[in-house]
Design a protein that fits this description.
Layout lengths: L4 H19 L7 E3 L5 E3 L6 E7 L2 E7 L4 E6 L5 H7 L2 H9 L3 H19 L17 H5 E8 L2 E8 L10
Antiparallel strand pairs: 1-2, 3-4, 5-7, 6-7
Helix pairs in contact: 3-4
């Protein structure tokens, strides 16, 4: 039996992480997990990584500082999710955009990448903070975004630590 797509993407993300971490010189890829489940290298101080997958794409971010990454396949964004997950300011901004779903996924991937960088993930209250350009989060952290094959990707790093993208 072939593995379901979700399991194949998880496996692909793991292979991608192994490759990317080896490229940094990490030899021991033994993982440990933070209080909220974020994996980290047990014996490689100074190497941080994060994974995500959606649709047909798996992505990995590696940095010498804490990093978060999220990818989402572009599709129709559910109104109910937007109402529950975005601040009033974010909803107002999203409503002014030509492509509401693309704008919603831009906000969503920024929020997810920030929550993953923090190590708290979905334990954070997603509607309690804004990722708009003038927000406290955006003043302290840098978001780098790109689109690959109808998938939107956001990487969150410390301020002045913008990301670069490489496709494999």
């Amino acid at each position: 039996d072939a593995l379901p797509i979700y399991q194949r993407l998880s496996l692909g993300a793991g292979v991608l992480a192994t490759y990317a971490l080896r490229q940094t010189g990490a030899k021991d890829l033994t993982l440990e997990y933070g209080d909220y489940g974020k994996p980290y290298l047990a014996r490689a101080c100074g190497i941080h990584f994060n994974l995500s997958h959606s649709g047909t794409l798996a992505v990995c971010a590696v940095s010498d500082h804490p990093v978060g990454i999220d990818v989402e396949q572009l599709r129709e964004f559910p109104d109910l999710v937007a109402d529950r997950c975005f601040t009033a300011e974010e909803c107002l901004w999203m409503g002014k955009q030509t492509d509401r779903s693309r704008a919603a996924f831009r906000l969503w991937t920024r929020k997810e990448s920030y929550m993953k960088l923090s190590g708290e993930g979905l334990h954070m209250n997603i509607e309690s903070f804004s990722v708009m350009p003038d927000s406290d989060v955006s003043q302290e952290y840098c978001f780098t975004e790109t689109e690959i094959n109808a998938h939107l990707i956001s990487v969150c790093t410390a301020q002045q630590q913008s990301a670069k993208f490489t496709e494999f």
